[in-house]
């Protein structure tokens, strides 16, 4: 990539990041996410469970149906998401814990975009409310639609393409990355962060 292009892109990323932080605070950059399923959590166990859940598998199946990506591509998309989680974990563990602990008394309902007290009764009441059920149906539909867009945009990204080529050759492109220049690594991170934005732009 040419130096000029790279610089322009970096500027764009910087502006975007400032806008995000202004709008959502620093929180979303520290949480663990699955950009396909619109899942975001502070708990590493929760996201790990998510990656092996039926729900996540169904999203991947849906993406594959819509995009006609082959099995290898779908496996790559999944591995990309898991590797991003591992990186977030190693880099931001301490900060994440601090930020997340302060949020522990409240649970965020992604479908309703609201916070509810995390007591069992209030969560149960919320899950059974007609507002929640209606929001959830809408949310699921949006999530399904956007998972396809996210997957497609990831696979058209030139950095991801290069990574996928390695993956096809049986190499582990996620490990190699660490050895690449810090700059490239930051780019890759930012690109993946961009994917996360789909679940913030609601
Ligand atoms: Zn998922
Ligand atoms: Zn809800």
UniProtKB/TrEMBL annotation:
Protein family according to the UniProt entry: Belongs to the AKAP95 family.
Pfam families associated with the record: AKAP95
Organism: Albula glossodonta
Ranges of Acidic residues composition bias in the record: 182-202
Disordered, as annotated region: 175-202
InterPro entries according to UniProt: AKAP95, ZF_C2H2_AKAP95
UniProt protein name: DBIRD complex subunit ZNF326
Residue span, C2H2 AKAP95-type domain: 34-56, 109-132
Entry GO CC: DBIRD complex; nucleus
Protein's UniProt keywords contain Transcription: no
Record keywords, A-Z: DNA-binding, Metal-binding, mRNA processing, mRNA splicing, Nucleus, Repeat, Zinc, Zinc-finger
Cell membrane listed as a keyword: no
PROSITE patterns: ZF_C2H2_AKAP95
Domain of life: Eukaryota
